[in-house]
Amino acid sequence: MDGADAPQPARSGSGVTACSTSTAQGRMNGGANASNNAAAAMEERFADVCKRKLVLDESTTRQAMQLFKETKIILLSSMSSLGSGSPEEIERSWCACVLYCVSKLGNAGKAKEDRGITLRQILRAFDLKIVDFFKEMPQFCIKVGFILTGLYGSDWEKRLELQELQANLVHLCSLGRHYRRAYQELFLLNDGKPANNSSELNVQQASEYYDFGWLLFLVLRNQASSAVKNLLTSTTELVSVLAVLIIHIPVRLRNFSIEDSSCFAKKSDKGVNLIASLCERYLTSEDELSKALQKTNILIKDILKKKPCSDVSECQQGSLSFIDPEGLTFFKNFLEEDSLKSSLQVLEKEYVNGLDTKGELDARMFANEEDSLLGSGSLSGGALKLPGTKRKYDDVMASPTKSTASRAPMSPPRFCPSPNGNSFCNSKMAPFTPVSTAMTTAKWLRSAISPLPSKPSGELLRFFSACDKDVTDDITCRAAIILGAIFTGSSFGERMCTSLRNTSGMDAIWTEQRKMEALKLYYRVLESMCRAESQILSGSNLTSLLSNERFHRCMIACSAELVLATHKTVTMMFPAVLEKTGITAFDLSKVIESFVRHEDSLPRELKRHLNSLEERLLESMAWEKGSSMYNSLIVARPTLSAEINRLGLLAEPMPSLDAIAVHHDISLGGLPPLPFHKQPDKDEVRSPKRACTERRNVLVDNSFRSPVKDVIKSKFLPPLQSAFARFDISS
């Protein structure tokens, strides 16, 4: 036997194995090279957009490239799970998210004019629609959150202001639709006279009036609106613009008759009371509308340099015929053809110059039916829901630098006349829209709550004094501190604080008014609860209820949340009230049902709001780490104590009122000193949400019980997992 022949198969097999290993290694290297090439190509494309399209400064470019390089691996590995578009679309969305983060987080401390790019520029550079951006941005933040924390600190999410931006978007969508509908009802979109001009020119001029009204509103919103942006104030400003248009747009373009009582029901012997009639139509406050109209007139005088007509009788022969001029300001030849064009150019320039360079949207597009996102909605799971019948997202970003002459006019919806030719007069009630719903809710707050006294009623004081110890001072001091913490400049972010320092105090007045509304609502519902409890107990001593700190904070938080929800603020949104009051989501969930039951006049919209909050609280927030539910659970099932403590699930103690007062620099004025809390230590003063590392008695701060029933009844099985399987709350 030839010795050389025996090992041949082994050598052959070894050669095949080596060849296979080499091939696999080659494939791996090839895949890695392909991946590296793809990453390099992406990086090159991103750099090209930064330098060529956006022309970023060196500092912003450096930060953008750093963030992109650190996140591109996540992008490559997550292509299949990011969005439903093509790889190219996903890449563009990712790049837009990177630049938005840099624009918001990487420019702190810079002057406003040096803060770089805006969101509208980013979206235009990457050919993205707003709705796509809002779909992808939450997923981006989830995936790269740890990188953002390392680069920009743990507070990056708050500074990103994504929730505020989305709320502002929703408001602008609603306001744009509201304006289109109102303009369509009030005015024709075609001049209607053959004259020497073509019909196309007549249509264009009529559209310019439409453009003018929206631009006037936007400039007014940017200049006169409080830093605490809210839907109610913006709607009132929009109605003030409609009043200006009614008395200045040529009569031939009106879609109504001023003498028709069904159109303008509020009249006097001097003629139609325009302000009162518009308030009735659009559910605004006469006082607030008059103030908004004054601001609008000041803007016209200061920015457009128009002079009011001194002789009112001379003006009443034209567009002011049959209108009571009291409270109105008429500008002669204000919206004549030549004046209209120049006014449009001035407003356009004023608006572009006033755009917030920290990422504000270009709101001109929201009045354009063909280009804007119609409807309103909220982010749910990272997606923006816009319940409109028409959703056109193409060409959504209008150029902020184009002049009125070169830019296509905003296109309001085609007007379809009613059988009687008068849509405004035939429509007896405003259509059900987000704006009309908000105004209806505000009317309740204005008529049912605002007239109430800001102090406890005589009956409520009797309940306070009937306790084992008179709790009047405790309750009034607590309300002042907690509401002071909620309604302060710091509660509404950096813009509010700056505004409070730099304006004439209008934002401070707005904040104080909202605080008073919440206080009055709190006392009203508390009195109703006390009355009901005393009937059940056949007595007036409600010590166990009225001396419960957590109960009162929950009631105040609920009242404040309803006021904020009514005004639909952009910045102070739920769950902000929880942090300000020092309670948890589980705490608040225990008073919502009782709050609704004891306020019969609560509008349906606010009941729905509380119901949605309750679902959110019980389905998710109450189960988070640090929830007071675990403090209740450990009492109901002591056998779970070890595991709950091991997992660190227990809630921190509520911050003392002293700590909250010091933290928010709240002055109690003439109120008595706090009799029920020790002087806060340094850690407590620094933050009312201070860390609590020591083991604590879970019975402390756990009781929250009605004099008659336990607020919470729970049935739990021994294992911790089974304990979460059933959760029942009853009153």
From TrEMBL:
GO molecular function, one term: RNA polymerase II transcription regulatory region sequence-specific DNA binding
SUPFAM superfamilies: Cyclin-like
Domain Retinoblastoma-associated protein N-terminal: 103-248
A family per Pfam: DUF3452
Keyword Nucleus recorded: yes
Start and end residues of each stretch annotated as Disordered: 1-31
Sequence ranges assigned to domain Retinoblastoma-associated protein A-box in this UniProt record: 433-633
Composition-biased stretches (Polar residues): 14-26
A cellular component term, taken from the record's GO annotations: transcription regulator complex
Subcellular location per the Swiss-Prot or TrEMBL entry: Nucleus
Swiss-Prot/TrEMBL GO biological process terms: cell differentiation; negative regulation of G1/S transition of mitotic cell cycle; regulation of DNA endoreduplication; regulation of transcription by RNA polymerase II
Entry keyword set: Cell cycle, Nucleus, Repressor, Transcription, Transcription regulation
Superkingdom in the source lineage: Eukaryota
Keyword set includes Transmembrane helix: no
Role summary: Regulator of biological processes that recruits a histone deacetylase to control gene transcription. May play a role in the entry into mitosis, negatively regulating the cell proliferation. Formation of stable complexes with geminiviridae replication-associated proteins may create a cellular environment which favors viral DNA replication.
Family of the protein in this entry: Belongs to the retinoblastoma protein (RB) family.
Protein name per the record: Retinoblastoma-associated protein A-box domain-containing protein
